[in-house]
Design goal:
Blueprint lengths: L1 H11 L3 H6 L3 H17 L2 H6 L6 H15 L20 H30 L21 E7 L6 H10 L5 E4 L1 H6 L1 H9 L3 E4 L12 H19 L15 H7 L3 E2 L3 E2 L8 H11 L5 E5 L3 H16 L3 E3 L1 H4 L7 E2 L11
Parallel strand pairs: 1-2, 1-6, 1-7, 2-3, 4-8, 5-6
Helix pairs in contact: 3-5, 7-13, 9-10, 12-13
Amino acid sequence: MGVTGESTKNAARPYRPVRAGTRWNPARVLAVTVLTAACATGQGAGSAGSGPPGGTGSLAAPVAHAAPAARPSPSPSPSPPPGTGSPASGAPSRQASAPSAQPTASAQAPASAQPTASAQAPTVRPRTPAAQGSPDCRRVMCVALTFDDGPGRHTGTLLRHLAEYRARATFYVVGRNVAEHPGAVRRMVEAGHEIGNHTWSHPDLTRLPAAAIRTQLARTDRAVEKAAGVTPATVRPPYGAHDAAVRRRIGRPVVLWSVDTEDWRHRDRSAVARRAVRAVDPGDVILFHDIHPTTVKAIPQVLKRLSARGYRFVTVTELFGGKPPRLAYRGPRRDRRAG
């Protein structure tokens, strides 16, 4: 029986290693616990620091392996940059937050700068052909092209024709038309043209009392000032109707014309161009109406033919050397002995 008991005792020894091996099971359990906690929180370094001394070195590698599963959780940003570095060190969250701030700054800068630039653009750089200077019309052949009753639907086309020849003109505008087409008046001034007053509603001033004449002119002045920031320096009474009383109430130079194209009567561009070119002499003031499309179509021929003859196209004020007389029909004659 002793042998039997000893053999039974010895037979139990092979199972001792199981009990001896249980000395390592707590460490394994701890490691699994730490890894589980690291995967759950995504903070491997903090979990390793809470473990027993001497175990951080062996836990750093497992945390790095567990981090890819936790990478999406700390970066809710819709567009995290690729390759943000090692997630175990906490750098991914800092790198993801920095790029998200940069687009905000870059998006705000243009938004604050662009509207300012676009708001200032229309207020600068008036286009003017006046860079060539005002000629001395006593020495060169000058002619003043004048256009009444506008602005209208065809005035923009007329301005383009004048710009092709660097020609300056004078527009005697009707106030109520200025109120309807302020942009056209602004472009006239920007291009170097002159604006004259042709009353508010085109009445015969010789039939109006003094107060009504002043109202007709004042309303037109205000409309021009609002549209282009200038005040007309000269006046052309409708139909050319004037007398001493009207001129006194106007109080500004009254400018009429010396060449009448009668474009209001002859709605034919060839006839208008022929009458303008055939009758002109140096110093003349030519009357047109830019409200008629046939007149606007005739202007390129007028400009071409008179340019070929050596004429310079000037405003009314330039024609008189900056000082129009109280009543004017035409400019000064060219001194043929000069030049």
